[in-house]
Amino acid sequence: xxxxxxxxxxxxxxxxxxxxxxxxxxxxxxxxxxxxxxxxxxxxxxxxxxxxxxxxxxxxxxxxxxxxxxxxxxxxxxxxxxxxxxxxxxxxxxxxxxxxxxxxxxxxxxxxxxxxxxxxxxxxxxxxxxxxxxxxxxxxxxxxxxxxxxxxxxxxxxxxxxxxxxxxxxxxxxxxxxxxxxxxxxxxxxxxxxxxxxxxxxxxxxxxxxxxxxxxxxxxxxxxxxxxxxxxxxxxxxxxxxxxxxxxxxxxxxxxxxxxxxxxxxxxxxxxxxxxxxxxxxxxxxxxxxxxxxxxxxxxxxxxxxxxxxxxxxxxxxxxxxxxxxxxxxxxxxxxxxxxxxxxxxxxxxxxxxxxxxxxxxxxxxxxxxxxxxxxxxxxxxxxxxxxxxxxxxxxxxxxxxxxxxxxxxxxxxxxxxxxxxxxxxxxxxxxxxxxxxxx
Amino acid sequence: xxxxxxxxxxxxxxxxxxxxxxxxxxxxxxxxxxxxxxxxxxxxxxxxxxxxxxxxxxxxxxxxxxxxxxxxxxxxxxxxxxxxxxxxxxxxxxxxxxxxxxxxxxxxxxxxxxxxxxxxxxxxxxxxxxxxxxxxxxxxxxxxxxxxxxxxxxxxxxxxxxxxxxxxxxxxxxxxxxxxxxxxxxxxxxxxxxxxxxxxxxxxxxxxxxxxxxxxxxxxxxxxxxxxxxxxxxxxxxxxxxxxxxxxxxxxxxxxxxxxxxxxxxxxxxxxxxxxxxxxxxxxxxxxxxxxxxxxxxxxxxxxxxxxxxxxxxxxxxxxxxxxxxxxxxxxxxxxxxxxxxxxxxxxxxxxxxxxxxxxxxxxxxxxxxxxxxxxxxxxxxxxxxxxxxxxxxxxxxxxxxxxxxxxxxxxxxxxxxxxxxxxxxxxxxxxxxxxxxxxxxxxxxxxxxxxxxxxxxxxxxxxxxxxxxxxxxxxxxxxxxxxxxxxxxxxxxxxxxxxxxxxxxxx
Lengths: 440, 508
Prior knowledge:
Structural class of chain B: alpha+beta
Shape of chain A: globular
Number of domains of chain B: 2
Strand content of chain B: 35-45%
Largest sheet of chain B: 7 strands, mixed
Helix content of chain A: 10-25%
Low-confidence stretches of chain A: none
CATH class of the largest domain in chain B: Alpha Beta
Number of helices of chain A: 10
Structural class of chain A: alpha+beta
Radius of gyration of chain A: 24 Å
Low-confidence stretches of chain B: 1-6, 9-32
Radius of gyration of chain B: 24 Å
CATH topology of the largest domain in chain B: PmbA/TldD fold
Helix content of chain B: 10-25%
Largest sheet of chain A: 6 strands, antiparallel
Number of helices of chain B: 11
Largest interface: A-B, 89 and 94 residues
Mean pLDDT of chain B: 90
Number of strands of chain A: 18
Number of strands of chain B: 22
Oligomer: heterodimer
Distance between the termini of chain A: 61 Å
């Protein structure tokens, strides 16, 4: 089925749903092709190539909602799916706030968002294999690297279609390429594993095989000899990917659903100072070429730039249509989650931040869950490097770090200048005044 | 950042995690309220894929020199319904249909999948998967012979996917009301219910043809309590490969709701955990997570075949205190990880992993078993037809000892008692963490103040040797495990355990 036909299929199913008694209906279809390969010890270990599609729909009968989805796009299945959903909707309770968004015009020029790169489609399997092999070869050439779990190269190209009974009809296409490697170092019983993976919408912006290999080697070898430290309260410097992981927890705490369900410690805190002056956090779905960029969200609401925290003051939540109505606010175009959610860069370089610490932890990795949005509590396994007198000294491992996101946001003392938009949630190196590091 | 080598175990907790659904959208057969039996004819009758076509596709898949080819047909219907803010918010029905085609050549895997079961499309997919091998085929495909499993480890009486939505709504409301009525301090409740029916047919170039029909149900409740500006959330999930009888006789929905509410209230007075190394008791309630992470994952054969797991060279060696015996058994009836056949068509067996502290086995899939020259044991699993099979746990169990939980608590002067978990995570190097949602302080041999949000951290080699006492009160934890980007329903059971010393993460 070609692409125009898929948008038409969505529109036809919307019309069918209306005819059968849905007061509102929304249909989205995704079509995509995946190519991925793993190389281990110089050989292609796995190669996956496939195309797939899927349809999902949501409909309302007098404020009562039902959903459905299918990978089988045959007409009889889809029509049956709609009929069943209408019957099921009648068993839900009426919710006056439930419904589709009002139609908004997508004014952005989709071409300018740089979400699609034809060069990715033209890349031949042999080239992808060669890149993955090269990365692994460089890594295994370093004597400190003990083993390779494998290197990988993947490409994805896909198109999203959305139509609803409020008259919205739109589509966009995206490409992604990614490559990485995962390694093991150390001596038993003190083995360490780490790696590096880069991804991009634009082929020319993907890191070179040398860079990926170098980063992975650096990340795994700097941990060799890691040991526990005494339990203590110290400043913690978050390496940029760790800031991103903190921000994904923050996203859970400021998304509209957690707020109206009161499952976040930030519920009811709009206008309050919740972080240090250095903290400005934004969601922006329109950054050209960035990982989370899209013209509209899963409900057809245009994406935009929303300042969530400005100089420490909570300004807005990130919402879909329903949660925004629950909170008596306006949708921010976040029904698909974070678009590009980031902590604004500061002026310091990562080196300056490390230099400023007399004794503390440079956090490079975490393991485990231990995040509670209701309270903001954080408790995870951690590893990294110990900082003494502004210098990175020995590696630390098998420690825990604990704190509270609320206190942590207030304790951010320095913000680095190193933000990259390779993931939809991203941030620079930061320094936090104090957290508990648990060890011996 | 990549996390490709992390394996984690996530409690199917937050109600939001369960995709929404309800009534079976099955035109002909299911419309009459009957699940068809497991038979390869299912895909022929329903989707027009004849046995002879399967054989032809298997042959095409071998045409470039592959040594083994396999088809995995899947049809899955997942229904769910969700209640929050005192109303049924929505219901949903999700259908997934497709075939995954795998070709093996040495240690190499070629994989393709399609959601279109026409002969032409399957042929094209087979050729894509075949390309992993570059040569000419000399192998032919044996005649497909229908086989069936001698096991029946699912409860197929009163299947929930055949139950009317209105009756499922009643189950959800019962749990919801139990949360709300538990205590005046409960401010929010959420309950979701999901049921799934999965049809699989597996055919391979060795002539195997086998099918299965697998139910899976899950109820999840969450409760948020508030007092003096402090808010906490408790969770409870309950399910398995059951029918309606489970919620009528074994785990009534009101018990599910009550437990979530009880934990939320207890957490209101919880303190931060004491940080540092100390004796730790793992309660039997959910501590199967520990067995799953510390023992199960490092003993999955893939990491051992590739020598990346810390356990690869320890077969036959003493790796744990001799009081420790652990096995994995997918043939236990009705648990989340129970299987009549695995996703490669192998009939599972109870697999001993650690016997009196000695490492005696790994969990195998076809690829690893061949390279390690070991027997298949029915642990090759995949998330959907879009995924190639890998070795996974089913139901992992630590054999009970003869202590009582009371003896164990009494033996600790000062320490930490872990009760409920957010989950656990482990890497191939054996480093793991468990994220404890709720626990207790142990003071002078008694459980005292409740403790929230602690992290336990260690390495599997160390923890296996720190097991000092084992009680006789086994309970099972039912969850979802993630590995290499694939999720799988699993169960892990353990009695109450005492660990001599472990690092607890908390705040000072």
